[in-house]
Design goal:
With 355 residues, the protein is an alpha/beta fold. The protein has helices at residues 13-20, 41-57, 74-85, 100-109, 126-138, 175-178, 192-205, 213-220, 227-244, 251-260, 270-282, 290-297, 301-314, 329-335, and strands spanning 5-7, 64-67, 89-93, 115-119, 140-145, 152-157, 162-167, 183-186, 318-321, 324-327. It binds adenosine-5'-diphosphate.
Length: 355
């Protein structure tokens, strides 16, 4: 049975959302309303137009697809949208919706104009996706009963709702599913100035004294353009300052704390560096297939593709070619490695052509 969380705008939305997103307990740092949501200006502009038009026409909002790397605020935005619409959010995770019946029972519970949030929608089983199409288009679900000689189709009507799908891999969505979203919003990595604002807000919510610009800079520049990382670093740094420096926090203490965490000046952690080193040393700088790199590292290729690679691509440390991944000179310079020889050791069996 799929786990589902229902969140009314009044009832501690951050707690339920955090749990629905897979986190344990509440997350007081999650923005609740659009004016608390920092950055992503382009995306918010499109969303605000859609929300205003929906209100003027007194309709339910079109289905929305949110895509981008993890930790950039997709789940938070789903909560914000439901709050702005004044409706309830029902949050489920795609892989947990194992049967059509899970989807039906969720949709049956929903009030008119409620929001259904499906995280990791690219991992929705194909059989469930089939039920979703007529639900998205006509707010009905078709069931086949007595499958065999005389199949009978029963149609179930559900209340109008807005589906918000979140994915780190828009490319894995089937064409029919993608085409049923009226609005597709792409998340970008955050600018340092936006991360500084997020850190300032989070520090205030955590009851910390105001942070100086240099302290904020030291954390923002190591946050990989990602609010979830920024908030995690803030908590680590706060612990470190409390235990080692009586709570005092400045840029030098941030550097000390994050060096202890193995995070370097631009935010690379041990896994990022291991990935780049493997590509440089085992595969001569590439091109190498993702599966080969993952096997060498003993890591899951999905984690590398979702969590490690987007930022390395963003900072220009990695390029994806039809023949596979290649390290760049900027990356080898950063790590103090010799320049790549490209293509010295490649197992062709592992090459991918779908990049
Ligand atoms: P995703 O669903 O994309 O993985 P989340 O919505 O769970 O990301 O965001 C991770 C955390 O980062 C949130 O708990 C929140 O504290 C913070 N966060 C994300 N986006 C923003 C934002 N735009 N403004 C302020 N905080 C944010």
């Amino acid at each position: 049975m799929a786990k589902e969380r229902i969140v009314s705008p009044e009832a501690q939305p951050q707690d339920d959302l955090a749990a629905a997103a897979g986190g344990a307990g509440g997350n007081p740092l999650r923005p609740q309303r659009i004016d608390e949501y920092i950055g992503q200006a382009e995306l918010l502009e499109k969303l605000e137009i859609a929300l205003a038009a929906t209100r003027q026409r007194d309709e339910s909002l079109e289905h929305v697809l949110l895509h981008g790397p993890p930790g950039l605020g997709k789940t938070s935005l789903a909560g914000v949208i439901a709050a702005e619409l004044g409706t309830r959010l029902h949050a489920v995770s795609g892989p947990n919706l194992t049967r059509g019946a899970n989807l039906v029972s969720t949709l049956k519970k929903m009030q008119p104009r409620d929001v259904l949030f499906i995280d990791e929608i690219h991992r929705l089983p194909a059989a469930v996706e089939e039920y979703l199409y007529p639900a998205m288009e006509d707010f009905r679900i078709d069931f086949t009963v007595d499958a065999g000689m005389h199949p009978k189709i029963i149609t179930l009507q559900v209340n109008p709702f807005t589906l918000i799908g979140a994915t780190t891999r828009a490319g894995l969505l089937s064409g029919p599913l993608r085409s049923r979203f009226g609005l597709a919003l792409h998340f970008r990595f955050y600018e340092p100035e936006e991360l500084r604002r997020i850190l300032t807000r989070s520090a205030a919510l955590l009851g910390m004294p105001a942070l100086e610009d240099a302290t904020l800079d030291a954390m923002a520049s190591r946050s990989r353009g990602t609010p979830r990382v920024a908030n995690r670093l803030l908590r680590r740094v706060r612990d470190f300052a409390q235990v080692r420096h009586d709570g005092r926090l400045d840029a030098a203490i941030v550097e000390e704390a994050l060096a202890l965490e193995g995070i370097d000046v631009i935010g690379l952690d041990a896994l990022d560096r291991a990935y780049l080193r493997t590509l440089a040393e085992t595969y001569g700088g590439g091109p190498a297939g993702l599966e080969a790199i993952a096997a060498s590292l003993g890591e899951d290729s999905g984690t590398l593709e979702d969590v490690v690679e987007p930022f390395l691509l963003q900072v220009g440390f990695l390029v994806r070619t039809r023949q596979g991944r290649r390290i760049t000179d900027a990356a080898t310079t950063h790590l103090g490695l010799p320049s790549p020889r490209h293509g010295a050791v490649v197992d062709p069996g592992f090459l991918e052509f779908d990049v």
